[in-house]
Design goal:
By secondary structure, this protein is of the alpha/beta class. The protein contains 9 helices and 5 strands; from the N terminus they run E-H-E-H-H-H-E-H-E-H-H-E-H-H. Helix 1 packs across helix 8. The longest helix is centred in the middle third of the chain and has 17 residues, at about 70-85. The radius of gyration is 17 Å and the shape is globular. This is Chloramphenicol phosphotransferase.
Amino acid sequence: MTNDSHSVQIIILNGAPRSGKSSIARAVQEQFEGPWLNLGVDSYNAMTPKRYLPGIGLRPGGERPDLEELVPFFYAALYESIAIHASLGLNVIADLGHHDSYSQPLGILGDCARRLEDFPVLFVGVRCPIETIMQRRDIAQEGRETLYLRATEDEPIPEPVQRWQDAVHRPGIYDMEVDTSVLTPLECAEAIRHQLDLGIPEPSAFERIAGGR
């Protein structure tokens, strides 16, 4: 492997739960050349003690201030791991749900961006209408227990689901965006490949975020 930071690629997918991020990540792993390691929220939470879950998946709204002091450290460790993988010549894709809607702003995204300042990062906003997200939640929970909130007649879109939709794309600075309600995971992966072939815009989204712009 090589330690040339410009010979590797890092893709960060950002979007709400059930927006299709993990499906895109799998398509990238299956279709792109070379090893692509997925260091996203599911893999990170799989090694997080249960009493500290949902960990980096803590949803918007400031519901768990007791966990909030740990979340920046979890994210810092995750992004340092991404940097280490990239420094060893391993491509990384990470599907995450960045937001700053905690009981008080934590500035996590800016800190994460600065930790990857030596590497090329494609920051992809994964969009999906909330109606489609609710349909996917319904499908996911059919016939089995699930942690997903169910829609009711009084609340067709649960308030925490709406909070994700409102908070996850702030500030909305991306190198590119995809809409999984109109593109398949494979089509999203191909769009990402095309953008990588064209080159990451300069300054990149992470460069602007790291600089506070």
